[in-house]
Design goal:
The chain is of the alpha+beta class and 371 residues long. It has eight helices and 19 strands.
Length: 371
Amino acid sequence: MSVVAAPSPVLAVPGAVAAVPGSPDAPVPWHYGDPLGEQRAANERLALVDRSHRFVFSITGAERLTWLHTVTSQHIAELADGRSAENLDLDLNGRVQHHFVLTELAGTVWIDTEAERGPALLDFLGKMVFWADAKPQAEPDYAVLSLLGPLAHTATPALGLDRLPETYEALPLPGGGFLRRMPWPTADSFDLVVPRDQLMTHWTELTAAGAQPAGSWAYEALRVAAARPRIGVDTDDRTIPHEVNWIGAPDEYGAVHLQKGCYRGQETVARVHNLGKPPRRLVLLHLDGSADERPTPGDPITAGGRTVGVLGTVIDHYELGPIALALIKRNIPVDTQLTVDDTAAAVDPDSVVADDSPQPGRQAIERLRGR
């Protein structure tokens, strides 16, 4: 099941430019005439991004957290009020089906995820309730905005707050909804999940308070630079959590807890953690900017004429130039010369997460063998 989000009213703001048809961000502004300047504002000052095409739903009921804990990858059974986490739904083989952000607030779990995947996630969770006191339900009247930048504290009066939340903390807003701090795409990233009929009110008040309008181009460029994957663009139907750095508890900014009980796909997660290595890894690529055209997501990546990976998000960054995320074979050396179509590409070595630490399972086997 898929969904096409309705065009955002922010597209009517003077200067707003829509993304190309077919883009996952087509319902919201792509930029406002200065995409690189908007990225700089989000990184150095304060910017406001319309992400109202996110799919939002809620879960109520006394067992909402303990039930959700049993069917997803993150440890959330005892998540405190006003706290958030990232989470995954995996299939039986441990492949990623859904990535979402959840917030527990005042007796309700709020979930937001990609627009085209939200209905399928909601449908799956609804089928898994059985006898638990948990009620997943769509919330079409809620929308997401993102406030980015080190000057976010200047916007607290416009939000009716006296402080900013800590990472993964959520503070209720006076008119409904909440402000949540995220650890990405920048060090100062905040999501507003608000009633949809207040979307333009918040937009007007925050821009009047000094937030510069920024399009989804700015958000995506900063996300790619931070090497944070987007499901369905930087992942495929074979992706497992270890390949895209989604392993970790909430305080580790991950989406898969390695010390929790059984859930669908856990066997693959445990096996890779204890005994194996993921076949691929997510990396940041620097692309040759002299090419006439940019490669596109899904293009094969080659080394010496051999396919070694697949391209994900491609974007122009205000400092780094053309960059992309990619899934490449884990055994490809960082300094390998890569090509995407006719475009040269190079792995950013700082984006490679070291995975050479001893594996617990193999260490145990060696101890049993007396080594």
